[in-house]
What does this fold into?
Amino acid sequence: MKLLSDLIDQPIDEDYADERLVSFRDAKRVTVDESRAQIWNDSDYFCYVRESLHERVVKASEMLPPGYSYLIKEGFRPGWIQERSFQDSLEQYKKRRPNASKEEAFRDVSKYVAPIEVAGHPTGGAVDLTLVKDGEELFMGTRYNDDPNETDNATYTNAENISAEAKKLREILSQPLEAVGLVNYGSEWWHWSYGDTYWAFTKNDKIKFRPILSEDGARRQTNEK
It folds into this structure.
């Protein structure tokens, strides 16, 4: 698969849209994991995304089988948090594999944390989500945000080393999102995007959203006071 790090020097056209950030908190058939127990994001806008992505996730949720709904883990992530997350993960990787080359470390870490230059979350054009059934979060073959290097790549959406039940659940999660035009980052079954760099590359389209680096920038984009 093409990694986000592979796109850093890739020429991709841009056609930026000035869209609001919108919260998932009031969306139908979509709930938000307010615990933030599995993310490093203390932004007030962690469950916000761009309006067109929000609309598509809500539309996809209406296609889910009865009893199922999406659970939002993370949407917008300020650029400075993205950069910190990447650097922290890179340092942890180097401790685990001190003999790895700089290039190998950068590429491996990019499987599960995007370099800031091409990251989707800071644009508001990416969302991490999983499935809930009858109010209970489901096990999707790995935990959300598991490291592919520590799960024998079981976090990959099309992984074969997971149970038949987990494969079916990933299909239930994925099919509606694909139907509304979202793109999955293949090493993370939970990561979906619209309008960011990876989406534009995959769809042979133009990048729609600029990164938002700060909390104040996000606040201005919501039109909230």
About this structure: The chain is about 30% helix and 15% strand. The longest strand covers residues 126-133. The chain has one domain: 4-222.
